[in-house]
Each structure stands twice: as C-alpha cells, then as structure tokens.
Amino acid sequence: MTIESTPSGLDAGTWTLDGSHSEVGFSVRHAGISKVRGKFGEVEATATVGETLGDSSVTATIKTESFFSGDPNRDAHVRSGDFLDAEQFPELTFVSTSLAGQGETYALTGDLTIRGITLPTTFETEFNGSVVDPFGTTRAGFSGQTTISRKDFGLTWNAALEAGGVLVGDKVTISLELEFVRA
C-alpha cells in the first residue's frame, strides 16, 4: 500500500546523515553455529523528503575500506579480493527507486551496488520520529533491515568444514540505525 504523504514530523527538504549517530552493520552465519557482525565507519547519505513519498529519495555511499568487525585479520580478509575487494571497488552504493508504506513502517526499495554488481533491494524501515536537539538541530531517526545473498553480489569465497557445511553463510543481514539532520 502506498500512502502519498510523508511521515508526520518529517519536514520536506534535504536531510544529511549524521555519521557519528548512525550505524550500517551486517551479520552473517559463521561455521553454521554463530553469527559474526561487522559495520562500516564511513557512510554518507542524503534523504530528500518531498511532499509525497513518490517525491522522496535516498542515496548512500559506503567506503569499503572502513569495514570493521573487531578482528584485524578478518577485517583485512573481508576488505581483500576474496570479499569486498576494497582496492578495486572502494564504495558500496544505494540509490532508492521507490518508497511505500504507512504510519511508521515503510519499504524502501532501490539499487544496491556491491563489487560492481547492482541489484534491486528492499529495506524494511521504521521511522523513529523527529526531534529538535538542545542545539536547535532538527533530527530524524530510522531503523532498517534487509537480507541479501552475498553470492548474488559476487562474494563467493568460502571454505568447506571437515564436519560438513561451509565457513561463511550465504545470507547476510544488513541492519541500519540512521540519524539524519535537516540541512
């Protein structure tokens, strides 16, 4: 269902991501028994809010070199040609193509590009509200999540386990906690 108006409390105009109050992270199954989490430290995004959802859009750029999981060896491996190939593909990008929903829940669909492969991806998002902080800055918060197949984006490296199965799962959950400021 598409609702024509934007969420209450979200003024039309340009909103810029506040990277110090936001997180773009992911989790993936490791060895079939646990999940490993990581995040990206350098993310830029702009939300253009129109009078209607159809007039609204989001663009984001993530520096692949900024990947961090807390393990320097794993971080270097994920940045290598086996996975993100940060040297050849320094950025991940997202460009929205549609926004639909109602109330506080929305489906944000767009083109996600990883390793030069672009595929349509939908993030289930939640508008967490807007406030004016003690310094007079208007802020708006969003949470979002999607699950992708890493193999679809050319992230095919893996290692077989002696007991069966593989080291790295195919399904990757991308989680967003985003805070935007009104320009």
UniProtKB/TrEMBL annotation:
It comes from the Bacteria. Residues 14-181 form the Lipid/polyisoprenoid-binding YceI-like domain. Pfam families: YceI. Belongs to the UPF0312 family. This is Polyisoprenoid-binding protein YceI. It comes from Arthrobacter russicus. The lineage of its organism: Bacteria, Bacillati, Actinomycetota, Actinomycetes, Micrococcales.
